[in-house]
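Page 37, continued from 36.
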């Protein structure tokens, strides 16, 4: 029996080695041959956060009161928009949305490739439109210049790090009527500045297209002012610091390089 087992081992070992070598060669041939946007100078990209965590600390009368702080976790493409509701939509959902960006990629170096660009997002929501009471509209936009460094020249997988600064703002308008027939109109303006950093990787099945995955973190300082009108009586407030926001999100997107 031992003789038979030894013979079996002698016969099968070369076969197993040949199969392993064949699989390795097949995997190598199946890997993308792209060199990570080699020769492409411009980047057009679309992205969103699939998952985001937001910490909101309002500037209230009692800054150490837990009621002034909220932590929110959201899932879904394009979240969060103002119409989603929830505590972290103030100030007007400062960070998450679907965005479009454009960038210029400088010449490749041995250390990698610098990229300078900007990202823009816009969200418009409405509720109870056409109704005489309880009608609301939300508008917000964001402009985010960024600098990115892409590593591993000549590879179909290009890790990157990124830093960004930006400004955004929004307007919330609402109109309501109480049971006494009094009409109340409110307009709230929000403006915020933010900065952040992130990292991830661009995956290139071909040189002119990539799938982008990353993790972003942002620090946001928000300011607001408001105007309220009840019948013919108006009151207003000037710009004032409103809240500090920390956001961390898992980014996903696609880019076209040309």
């Amino acid at each position: 029996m031992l003789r038979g087992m030894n013979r079996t081992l002698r016969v099968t070992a070369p076969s197993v080695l040949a199969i392993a070598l064949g699989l390795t060669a097949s995997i190598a041939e199946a890997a993308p041959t792209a060199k990570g946007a080699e020769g492409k100078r411009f980047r057009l990209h679309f992205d969103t956060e699939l998952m985001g965590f937001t910490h909101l600390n309002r500037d209230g009368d009692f800054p150490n009161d837990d009621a002034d702080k909220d932590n929110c976790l959201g899932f879904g493409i394009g979240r969060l928009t103002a119409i989603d509701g929830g505590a972290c939509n103030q100030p007007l959902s400062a960070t998450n949305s679907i965005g479009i960006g454009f960038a210029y990629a400088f010449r490749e170096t041995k250390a990698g490739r610098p990229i300078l660009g900007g990202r823009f997002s816009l969200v418009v929501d409405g509720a109870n439109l056409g109704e005489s009471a309880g009608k609301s509209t939300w508008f917000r936009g964001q402009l985010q210049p960024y600098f990115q460094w892409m590593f591993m020249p000549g590879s179909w997988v290009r890790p990157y790090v990124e830093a960004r600064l930006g400004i955004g703002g929004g307007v919330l308008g609402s109109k309501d009527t109480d049971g006494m027939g009094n009409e109340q109109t409110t307009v709230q303006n929000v403006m915020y500045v933010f900065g952040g950093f992130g990292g991830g990787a661009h995956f290139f099945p071909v040189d002119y297209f990539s799938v982008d995955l990353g993790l972003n973190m942002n620090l946001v300082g928000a300011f607001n002012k408001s105007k309220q009108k009840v019948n013919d009586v108006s009151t207003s407030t000037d710009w004032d610091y409103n809240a500090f926001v920390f956001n961390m999100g898992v980014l996903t997107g696609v880019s076209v390089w040309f």
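The CA atoms of residues 54 and 247 lie 4 Å apart. Flag for discussion at group meeting. The longest strand covers residues 183-206.
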